[in-house]
TrEMBL record:
Family of the protein in this entry: Belongs to the FAD-dependent oxidoreductase family.
Pfam families: Pyr_redox_2, Rubredoxin_C
Superkingdom of the organism of origin: Bacteria
The protein's name in its UniProt record: Assimilatory nitrate reductase (NADH) beta subunit
Amino acid sequence: MSLRRKPRLVVVGNGMAGMRTVEELLKLDADGHDITVFGSEAHGNYNRILLSPVLAGDKQFADIMLNTREWYESQRIRLHAGDPVVRIDRQRRVVIAHSGLEAPYDRLLLATGSKPFVIPVPGHQLPGVIAFRDIADVEAMLSASRTHRRAAVIGGGLLGLEAANGLMRQGMDVTVIHVMDSLMERQLDKPAAALLQAALERRGLQFRLSAQTAEIVGSDRVTAIRFKDGSELTTDLVVMAVGIRPNIELAKTAGLLCDRAIVVDDTLQTHTDPRIYAVGECVQHRGAVYGLVAPLWEQARVCAAHLAALGVKRYGGSVTSTKLKVTGIDLYSAGDFIGGADTEDLVLRDPRRGVYKRLVIRKSDGVDRIVGAVLYGDVADGPWYFELMQKCTDVATLRNKLLFGRAFCDGAGQAA
């Protein structure tokens, strides 16, 4: 009697989204697949979100490991770390790694993530110019901090501010360079961004806003940044934190449909090849590309259900909110926090406590709904505001109390 061969699942990408999908699959079907994983880094799977505490010296690399090599062995998963897949042969249903190793698949999961965008200005390839994306980048920054004093971080978003804080914690003089006129413009309105900048300046960070990098200066190593207005900033280290791009070259070369990212349907299946699935930052679903963790986890659950042949779940996209902690300062934003001519703002400012709250309300058909929120300093009610937003709750009777939070609104309602 012959034993039936397990379906072969090959995972391209050993990051958080791909391995979360594998973990979800193991919960549904613990021994149903022959799993092989390829990763570009020579490690097990680690939590990229916690790279900032490693840079700041609050954690060690071992503290942020999610799946050690021993875990892969215990799950009977073949891990090829440090040997990325360079080609997919869809006709033969085989992937080919950098080493020449070939692995056949019945189902293929692409979780190739994203790569940092490096501004292609003259000098961007000089030694001392690095990105902030993986543990190797963190190690390079830590090494530079031991031998150099001045650092410049290009990018005033979350990643750039975390990099700047970490380098400052390592003893460097740090200047954040941002092309926009306010920090974290995708998450914060200008009043909240101004509060954040002032708080970070008090801690020792310096800022150059509305600054466009024209050239990175140096011969053997970076020595300065030159801006489009002709001014210069002397520096020993440049960290690029200006955004990421979905890593789709492998998929495009294999002939899969790609737009900004790999196009998938509600089952996380690629449109071109039903044997190939994709999850994470490399994915475009209904026109949207997600970089936050919560949507990636939703994708992982749906994809795992279909890989386990329990295909009842569908991924309908994600409505996202962002709760951030930038150098110990709590921030929360959701929805359309800018608003427009058809919206009203409810604003609370408490400078003494360092609290700022702004709710954007839209009145339509006699109903008042929250469509956006920005919270600075006190974010406890962020999830409640987000819930009201998702449910399209009429908040007309709560307008005068909303900014004081859920407990006050519930208490006032009970008192009434």
